[in-house]
Amino acid sequence: MDVITSSEVVGSYVASRRRQGETIGFVPTMGALHRGHLSLIELARTHADIVIVSTFVNPLQFDNAEDFDRYPETRLADEEMCRQRGVHVLFRPTLSEMYPNGFATNVHVEGLSSILEGASRPGHFDGVATVVAKLFNNVDPDVAVFGAKDFQQVAVIRRMAMDLGFRIRIIVAPTVREIDGLAMSSRNVRLDVEARRAATGLSKGLFAARTAFRAGTTSARTLVDLVVGHMRTSPLVTVDYVQIVDPYDLKPVEDAGPDDVAVVAAIVGGVRLIDNLVLGDDDCLEG
Amino acid sequence: MDVITSSEVVGSYVASRRRQGETIGFVPTMGALHRGHLSLIELARTHADIVIVSTFVNPLQFDNAEDFDRYPETRLADEEMCRQRGVHVLFRPTLSEMYPNGFATNVHVEGLSSILEGASRPGHFDGVATVVAKLFNNVDPDVAVFGAKDFQQVAVIRRMAMDLGFRIRIIVAPTVREIDGLAMSSRNVRLDVEARRAATGLSKGLFAARTAFRAGTTSARTLVDLVVGHMRTSPLVTVDYVQIVDPYDLKPVEDAGPDDVAVVAAIVGGVRLIDNLVLGDDDCLEG
Questions:
Q1: Where in chain A is the domain with CATH 3.30.1300.10?
Q2: In the annotation, is B37 catalytic?
């Protein structure tokens, strides 16, 4: 495995592989890799000859400095995991490589960026869209793989990629969960024992809503109340939002259908967590 | 010459040429081609094996609908000119190709976009940065050629391309002028006889400033007054701005140096014209 920090070097690598007729799969991450990321890597491998993983903790997408400072960093473990999984290139750009002196460009996706996570984290999705556009240019992949846990991020990136004409196929990997249902997240390591237990309320609520939907409950308000009820069983959980939304425009629906998505965000013991579930999907608890 | 309207087709064309080891030069235009554009095409040819010209009148970069509606369109003449000059591909994307249903992405370059032309034409450079980012992805060139007449546009595009990691060399072609000094522009055809005569005040003023600078005048205020004086010899000219600016951050200077640029904008007989001149350059009047 090559560890590359320069976008020029990664660009030359990709150009030379492509000249040999190989296709490039790309998994952009912020490091602190876990089993969820490994599933993205596996999926990339099935869609491309070469797998490139980037680990760049992108300051632009943090709406507060403390969250950025506390974001976990596990460089050696990340490198080892990528090596073991047969990743071809670990792309680890420096901050000055990504945001050189005088950096002044912002990519904004109207509408999708200002609701849900965007309402709670102003500027977050501008940071995501900007860094992903740049990484897409740096790596120039044929396919890029993102996790379904970051549902809104996927919607923003799909829109950006289509609007700006990136010829990159966006693939979404199902959310990987702990045995008790908690969605894998790099932030989970920051949960203490109590908060870790309380955090299961998010997925418990989502799965309860899905069960109720299957049993015939389509009122979004009823489904939302059900999710909120599960989350509020612990005082450590502060609900940010719970909504049933349309999968395309992410706007709340009143009468839920099988393609609609239950989305939640909460602060659990000081850690912000998100999760979602498509009401009609039959993915099981475990990842 | 191939005339291509689909970005997918132009993408396949470029990929196949590149596999054969050829390099791609790109000249993005809004059509209504004139001698200025031809000089861009010639320059592209000297830097690349294949020359692709796009003609797309980009609604996003017009700050008012009337200006958009009145922008000249000369499709058959454009096509003939490109053919005669040995252009390989004329890329003429449709509006729905460029801005599909639900289009929501905006590329913004902070700072550079809000001064000078940006102050007079709100949103103009967002439209430019967005369409150029998309065209860069559609065409995927090695080099792209822009005209020096649109000085601020070049600065915005350079910044955007560097910030977003486009591996495209930006080349700037000198402004081509009519015999009497008027900078070539697609908008010149909208000048009536009186306005056409009055319009020479812009370049006359700029060249007078350069002459004064060479003779030792470095006070920006004095140079600006000189330019304004030449422009105001006709009542048909309404000055928008005249400034001596730094070539990198485009901010006004007080004491001018040889790299600084005299920039002007004016409404002449109802037509908005811009022009500029590097004070230390020795390019002659004719193009």
A1: 186-278
A2: yes
Contact A114, A239 (CB under 8 A): no
Kindly identify which residue of chain A lies nearest to residue B21, measuring between CA atoms.
A19
* Helices (H) then strands (E): counts for chain A: 11, 10
Spatial distance between the Cα atoms of B189 and B179, rounded to a whole number of angstroms? 16
Using a CB-CB distance cutoff of 8 angstroms, which residues of chain B are in contact with residue A103? Answer: 163
Distance CA A138, CA A157 (A): 16
Task: Name the active-site residue from B37, B88, B124, B230.
Answer: B37
Fold of A186-278: Pantoate--beta-alanine Ligase; Chain: A,domain 2 (3.30.1300)
Structure tokens at A41: 């890597």
Q: Kindly report the pTM of this predicted structure.
A: 0.95
Q: What is the pLDDT along chain B (287 residues), one digit of tens a residue?
A: 999 999 999 999 999 999 899 999 999 999 999 999 999 999 999 999 999 999 999 999 998 888 899 999 999 999 999 999 999 999 999 999 999 999 999 999 999 999 999 999 999 999 999 999 999 999 999 999 999 999 999 999 999 999 999 999 999 999 999 999 999 999 999 999 999 999 999 999 999 999 999 999 999 999 999 999 999 999 999 999 999 999 999 999 999 999 999 999 999 999 999 999 999 987 654 43
Report the CATH number of the A2-173 domain: 3.40.50.620
Judging contacts by C-beta atoms under 8 Å, the chain A residues touching residue B99 are 163
A231 contacts A195 by C-beta, under 8 angstroms:
no
